[in-house]
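Entry type: protein chain
Record version: 2
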Amino acid sequence: MDTLLVAFLAASLTAIGDRSHFFALELGERADSARLIIAGMAIAASLNISIAAFGGMMMADMLDIRSANLLTGLAIIFAGGSGLFTRKQPAPHTTRHQPLGFINITSQFFMLGFGDKIAFLTFALTARMEQPLLAGIGATIGIVAAHIWPILLGPEWPTIMPLRMASRVIGFVSLLLGLMIAIFALFF
């Protein structure tokens, strides 16, 4: 159960203010149905996270506890540390584009999340905690929970949630936590 909660929190917090949030916002403005976007995003996230969890499961037998802790610390640093850098928010679209299909939405989300920081974090957590199913479920639910708000709230979403401040605070805390885990893995 710890693996589920850790993966959920790590995925949902490090995804805040990410480029996929802005992509979800753009899709929310273009598509007719929010349910279609959420379903496509959930399937793409589950595919990406399943690949990462499978890789972490395969790697778990090859790592000792100190190496797995170091890998987890580095993954937390990379996942959260990206929030310290400023991202330029894209301009909102004023015109409606052609309708988007389910396969199109799913493939776009899949390609955007393939090998992303949350996949690397899930890989490391699975290698450390050796519970790929719980890590995969937690990370998938965390991704969907983090990305549902831009879709449902629409263009008002960036004004409701202070993205820069939230991503910088999460990035700073993740950087400290990852450094602590990495230092303890190296020296203690």
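Comment: Residues 2-187 form one domain.
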